[in-house]
Amino acid sequence: MGAAERVRLALWLGEIKFEDACVTQVDRPDLKIQSPFGQLPVMSIDGGPYIAQSNAMLQYIGTLAPKLCPTEQFLKVQEAIGLVDDFERALRPCIVLALEPEKLGYGITPATSLFVKESPELRTTIKALREAFLTNEMPKYCGCFSTMIQKSNGPFLCGVKPTLADCCLAPALERYTLGYIDHVPKNALDDYPVMTEYLTVFKSLPQIVAYEASKS
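and the corresponding structure tokens:
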């Protein structure tokens, strides 16, 4: 689940018409050059210049669909988005270590020269890091989200109606139900019933059902 997914969900939930231009691996390098900071996703509004940063896009969508970020809940919504971003950052080393270990310092000095892609040492470290995430970080953040939902009287992060924050949390949680990350089982959320119920309720929203149907 990339950063673009939260933007797509917000657009669908806000019932805002848009064109979803999927980028192929062939086109990706050229589009990155055209983007403001060499990153994806980007958004173009009415054919204008590319806008970067998914959270900036979310805030713009919130101005088009105020129900997704009501004025009286603005701080709560932003607080929740920030917590989701913390949750995502906690996972990032687990992913980067497998894809770009040099960004974490592995293979740069003689002391870490064994930690190169496809080496048994690196695979062992990846497994240990991901298992540690499931043991330490998952319960911490799922506990925070569960408390937030319960205090808001749910079923969503900020109350009875979904907001931009839910467009961020839902895809962040769903990756733990898909089984595509090595050493992260697809039942990783089963120990967090508030989270599994939350995800079920979010995915049953008519706009989200329509979005899922549009993929087929």
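(Above: one complete record from the training split.) The radius of gyration is 19 Å.
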